[in-house]
Amino acid sequence: MPNLKEIRTRIKSVKNTRQITKAMELVAASKMKKAQQSALSGQPYAALLAETLANISTRIEELDHPFFEEREVKTRGIILVTTDRGLCGPLNGNLIREVQKIEGAAKFVSVGRKGKQFLSRSSRELLADFEIGDSVQYIKIKQLTEFMIEKYLAGEVDTVEVWYPRYINILIQSPTKAKLLPIAGLGEMITELRGKNAKPFEDSDDDRNFKYEPDPKTILNELLPLFVIRQVYQAVLSARASEHSARMVAMKTAKDNANKLLDALTLQFNKARQAAITQEILEIAAATAGSE
Q: Domain with 280 in it: what CATH number?
């Protein structure tokens, strides 16, 4: 059995760990709230973009934009969104396991240090690495997305996909892959932009008469890249909310485990101290009996 000094040292160490994990839990909770607010603040813009796309698309007989061009998929282009730091449970591991299942050629753009490290270790082709940070800036997402769009239009990749941990709630973050290009169905994507509680695109009854200058097709060509950028932006915001919620849960679990370990060590310390006291009493009684 460990002596009292060893147990006391372990108790002090566990208390320090509990203090650190509690602080990290509070920081993660604060950051998670900000990430959720950032994701929600973009919804009005997304709704307006969806309404504009829906109205314009009904005025164009044939959509011949390169974003709608279906071609043989030889090389996939994937934006991999992970975290910069660890201590967030299985968040990155679950996403990386899905990436490991990819068959065929693929070129990657990484967002987050963990994804970059995985791609380097696994000798996968990394086109670029973008540092976004906790504060997700739209200009950086725009640069990232435009880089992938250029690769797509140049024929270096035949798809543009974003893989990220999608935020569902505080306890659940789901590894998700979203295909951005080519756009298979504008109607489905507009319905998704409008939100799950809105009418499907096909059931739209908007009878407003808009006038577009110079013409609807030109406006559509300008809006489609914004449409793709907005999807990547929302994916990164969701990934950041997932990261902070996963870290908060992981730190809370660590803090609770530290409390349980501290209770066990305290009980062990009390038993050891009681045993030491009992032993001293027995030694004193035996010495007194021997002197008589």
A: 1.10.287.80
